[in-house]
Write a structure and sequence with these properties.
The protein is elongated and about 100 Å long. The chain starts with a helix and ends in an 8-residue tail after the last helix. It has 27 helices and 21 strands. Helices cover 37% and strands 15% of the residues. The longest helix has 31 residues, at 359-389.
Length: 843
């Protein structure tokens, strides 16, 4: 007979002999399920049989003795049929002369002055508390189970204040508010930050140093003594379980003595330490044996706390809320969706995420809650996209002859990727619905030219357009580029019809630009956030282009759109966006990927060098400058900081000029300079008045200096891979050999291994995926945070979960585009709640 079946036979036999009183195992048969389930899988028992045992015994303690007898008999007969066991049909009772094994914690024992050590002669360990180590390789897949029945009574009053709970008055409510807990719903979603596994039971004679587990025993003696001249108190309790004794210590908790008396049977959970060669437990969780095991003998939730809120108190309050209200929560997802997605019901998930029955149940609960986060995100994004696509916009049509004329004006031939992107834009402009497209192209892929061609189709028809950039430097660069492409020789516009409006623009000039935009004299305006100011009005705005769109929030894009009548929107980014984010963060935009560089552009040679090798780098710069080229040196800080031992641009500029590059001209650029100062420095660097530009990451986006071919990045370990790739993209734009040198602050192998990925590939999409894995999505979100930063469980790196949630959201919208079905009304309410704090382009 397999060990797991033999163990179950012993439990059933003892239960039958005791008259089915649910005392064969400490705390009832339900308490042995996790340990038995692991052992049963180790014995290769059929999964459906394991689940049947778990399902029948989970509520065993709530049954009458007669019902318990029927349950055990039914289970035993099923095991006979499925396993072919020759065992009798009834669960075997013990023979009269066979001793009954009593729970160790209630066995009387002689008093002992000192706790047992690991060298004492062990007594036989009761079978009921051995927990075999689960085999990780046999971990079962997530499986949906039938939801627990919803109890009678009112639905969950999730908006009720926490003060409705016993023990939560105004003071505790104020403390909970610091955890952003104001009502019962907040409590249900105040999830544990980790879990301690105290579900493993051992007798005292089997304890080992470092064990984290639960111990049952009887209080043998209690005492308290003062330490450090009376400043601290130590409560010492010795417990005995019939196999040995264990010393338990609590520091500065003298009130425990009021609750623990000699002879009390208690359950303790914690870590086994060692002091002077003896095993001890220090500051464990404890509770009486006859109470519900909330703090012991289970997988224990550990919650985020704040001042004057203890873990034990908060766990007790959470238990009140979860045990009563979780099953009364209405699940917003229809049951057919739950079945098709193979996820737990929301009430079950809330129960299991707080007080899990097993690690598998916890994983299934976290999966359901993470699914919800992504699902409602996808649903909101899809609705935004659908609603925007239903609006009408002025169509702009061009023929092939016009296209060929525009191509002929270019000094180069478009790549295939640029052709595809331009075709996508023209198709959107001709559709009669607002263009809503993201052009995603690696550094140097030629996005600006494609945007200019798209603008030309709109400007040709007499409409106005706007281009918005995140920095004045980039806006000025776009002004030069678009002026050349659209208002140069033989261009569509006259030079005076293209204007630049940034923070440094004088008030008088701004007033002139505003006036000419309102009259329609200016056809194309390029600027920064200054374009969003209320006084700026357009006569006939029909297209907006936003560069490096992750730098703009949804509000800013919506404000720009409000300047026209459903204008077409084209957004561009050189920051490669991983697939998982393209499906979520940017899911409301149509996506065009430009994955091809113009011919003749060589990859940038990238190297990781140590701080001790700087002289090699300085020689490289001197050599390239002597050949007529220029260099960037990037630092992560503006000035020295005591907290961050990173090189700073301000201090290092002076040192480099005085000590390293005495014969060269060095410029300085950083984010705290005034806009006109930045523009002057960049202009002088572009005009080759500086050989080397010492800068912070203000030059990360869009700066175009074709003559620069060396990029040195100090403190490279402080940057993400995507950001490093953007900086690297500032060189190599003028043809010929170019170099990027990364200098980490230390020789830390792991950090340098991460940077070496930069040396291995120039593919920004590969780097972006790795950056997402290592640093999370923060650097990709920028100001586009609404709805994404509040996620507790879902990861924007989990492509499988994202695609699963996206698929089911799409199916739902295909079946009910307006979400008007009765079964979807709870879902609609949840969707409104989750998006109420967010922002949408069309909200």
């Amino acid at each position: 007979m397999k060990p797991s079946i033999e163990k179950l036979q012993k439990f059933f036999s003892l239960e039958a002999e005791r008259g089915y009183d649910d005392k064969a195992v400490f705390g009832g048969l339900e308490k042995m399920l996790d340990a038995w389930e692991a052992e049963a899988r180790h014995d290769d028992l059929p999964e459906d049989l394991i689940q049947a045992v778990r399902a029948r015994l989970r509520d065993y303690g709530r049954l009458t003795p007669d019902s318990r007898r029927d349950v055990l008999k039914g289970l035993w007969n099923r095991m006979r049929r499925e396993l072919g066991s020759p065992s009798p049909e009834e669960p075997p009772a013990r023979q009269a002369d066979e001793p009954v094994e009593k729970p160790a914690a209630v066995q009387p024992s002689a008093p002992e002055a000192e706790p047992a050590t690991a060298t004492e002669t062990p007594a036989p360990e009761p079978q009921v508390i051995r927990k075999p180590t689960p085999t990780p390789a046999r971990k079962p897949a997530l499986k949906r189970r039938a939801p627990r029945p919803r109890p009678d009574g009112p639905p969950a009053a999730l908006e009720a204040s926490v003060t409705v709970l016993d023990g939560v008055g105004p003071k505790n409510a104020e403390r909970l508010s610091k955890l952003d807990i104001h009502n019962l719903g907040d409590m249900l979603y105040h999830l544990p930050r980790r879990y301690d596994d105290y579900s493993q039971l051992k007798t005292i004679n089997r304890l080992k140093f470092g064990d984290e587990l639960t111990v049952l025993g009887t209080v043998q003696s209690t005492s308290v003594r003062k330490l450090y001249g009376g400043k601290r108190q130590l409560v010492e309790v010795i417990i005995n379980d019939g196999t040995g004794a264990l010393r338990v210590n609590w520091f500065n908790q003298p009130w425990i003595l009021k609750s623990l008396k000699q002879g009390d049977q208690i359950v303790l959970a914690g870590k086994i330490d060692q002091y002077l060669g003896r095993l001890v437990m220090t500051n464990p969780e404890w509770e009486p044996l006859d109470e519900k095991n909330l703090h012991t003998n289970r997988i224990l939730p550990v919650y985020p706390l704040t001042a004057k809120i203890s873990q034990r108190w908060l766990r007790t309050q959470m238990d009140k809320v979860v045990s009563y209200w979780a099953l009364r929560v209405q699940d917003p997802l229809p049951e057919r969706l739950q079945v098709s997605a193979d996820i737990l019901s929301l009430p079950d998930a809330l129960l299991q995420v707080h007080f899990p029955d097993s690690w598998d149940d916890l994983e299934a609960a976290r999966h359901r809650l993470a699914f919800d986060e992504i699902f409602f995100l996808q649903l909101g994004v899809a609705q935004q996209k659908r609603q925007w696509s239903e609006r009408t916009a002025r169509p702009f049509l061009v023929d092939d002859a016009w296209k060929q004329l525009q191509f002929a004006r270019l000094p180069f031939v478009l790549t295939d990727a640029q052709q595809r992107a331009f075709d996508d834009i023209l198709a959107d402009l001709a559709s009669g619905h607002p263009l809503n497209r993201l052009i995603q192209g690696d550094v140097g892929s030629g996005k600006t030219v494609v945007a200019a061609l798209g603008l030309a189709a709109v400007l040709e028809a007499g409409a106005q357009a706007a281009v918005m950039a995140p920095t004045s430097i980039l806006a000025e660069q776009h002004y030069r580029s678009f002026s050349t492409l659209l208002a140069g020789e033989g261009g569509l516009l006259a030079p005076e019809q293209v204007r630049l409006m940034i923070g440094a623009t004088s008030n008088a000039e701004k007033e002139e630009i505003r006036s000419q935009l309102a009259s329609g004299e200016i056809r194309l305006v390029i600027g920064t956030h200054a374009l969003l100011e209320d006084p700026v009005e357009f006569a006939n705005l029909h297209m907006a282009v936003i560069d490096e769109q992750h730098r703009f929030g949804v509000r800013q894009r919506a404000a720009l759109r409000a300047k026209g009548e459903n204008p077409h929107l084209l957004v561009m980014t050189a920051t490669p966006i991983p697939r998982s984010l393209a499906l979520t963060v940017y899911g409301d935009l149509d996506l065009t990927v430009m994955d091809e560089l113009p011919p003749g552009r060589e990859p940038v040679d990238t190297y990781v060098l140590y701080p001790t090798e700087r002289e090699r780098i300085y020689n490289l710069i001197r050599r390239e400058v002597s050949e007529g080229r220029q260099a960037f040196i990037i630092y992560p800080l503006v000035e020295e900081s005591e907290k961050l031992e990173a090189k700073a641009a301000v201090e290092e500029h002076q040192r480099l000029q005085d000590e390293v590059f005495r014969k060269l001209k060095l410029g300085l650029l950083h984010g705290r300079m005034k806009p006109d100062e930045k523009d002057e420095v960049m202009s002088r660097f572009r005009n080759r008045e500086f050989d080397v530009l010492v800068s912070t990451t203000v030059i990360e986006v869009g700066v175009d200096v074709p003559n620069a071919n060396v990029m040195v990045i100090e403190g490279a370990n402080r940057f993400g891979l995507a950001q490093l790739h953007q900086l690297r993209g500032r060189v190599g734009r003028g043809g010929g050999k170019s170099f990027c040198v990364l200098i980490p602050e230390s020789v830390d192998d792991a950090e340098n291994e991460r940077l070496k990925v930069m040396a291995q590939t120039n593919d920004g999409f590969v780097l972006a995926e790795k950056d997402l894995e290592q640093r999370g999505p923060g650097q990709f979100l920028g100001a586009r945070q609404a709805g994404f930063s509040e996620m507790q469980l879902a990861s924007l790196t989990d492509v499988r979960l994202i695609e699963k949630a996206r698929k089911h959201a799409q199916i739902l919208l295909d079946q009910d585009p307006e979400l008007q079905a009765a079964e979807h009304q709870a879902l609609v309410q949840t969707l409104k709640q989750r998006w109420s704090g967010g922002e949408g382009d069309i909200s």
